[in-house]
Amino acid sequence: MNEKMLFDQFEFARNITLKVAQGINEENADIIPNGFPNHLRWQLGHIYSSVEGIVFHFAGEKPNLPDGYMELFNTGTRPSEWKTTPPTIEEVIPLLTEQINRVKETFAGRLDEKVSKPLPVGPLQLETIGELLSFASFHESEHIGIIKALNIAVKNN
Question: Which residue in 15, 21, 40, 56 has a CA-CA distance of 20 to 30 Å to 145?
Fold first, then answer.
């Protein structure tokens, strides 16, 4: 697997996320427009938590998840059901930023390494760390599109 390309792809997607995140203010972070199940804060926290859960967890590494992140940002969670105070945008952005280097440092030279338990995703079986990272980049790109749509909907609200 081409390590440089995969790390570059991950960093490219993350830099788009960070650019969009820096334009989100606390006032707009929690608006849930009609037709959306969650808001901008949830999207950013979900992106961070997903890389920890998909890549680090399935690669056998300890995820770096602040207390409450899985309960707040896991797939299927909704802000309307939150029982704890979520992190601020200013708290999530540094986590997203540092995750780039942590992914590269932790998984350099390991992308072809098989995981102990493959992750089934639809018809796919993600069996290597590189496959996990590739899927995480794809997943993040999906959420970038949702964030952009949410931004438009919030501004038109």
Answer: 56
C-alpha span between 46 and 87 (Å, rounded)? 12
**Residue 82 contacts by C-beta under 8 Å, 6 or more apart in sequence?**
72
Sheet strands (E) in the chain: 114-121, 124-128
Question: What pairs with residue 128 in β-bridges?
Answer: 114
pLDDT above 90 covers what percent of the chain? Answer: 97
Quick one: CA torsion of 88, 81, 136, 16, rounded to 10 degrees? -40
Closest-CA residue to 121 (of 142, 133, 135, 134): 135
Instruction: Give the Cα-Cα-Cα angle 104, 133, 48 (nearest 5 degrees).
Output: 80
Q: Is this structure's pTM higher than 0.85?
A: yes
Angle at 6 between CA 17 and CA 14, to 5 degrees: 10
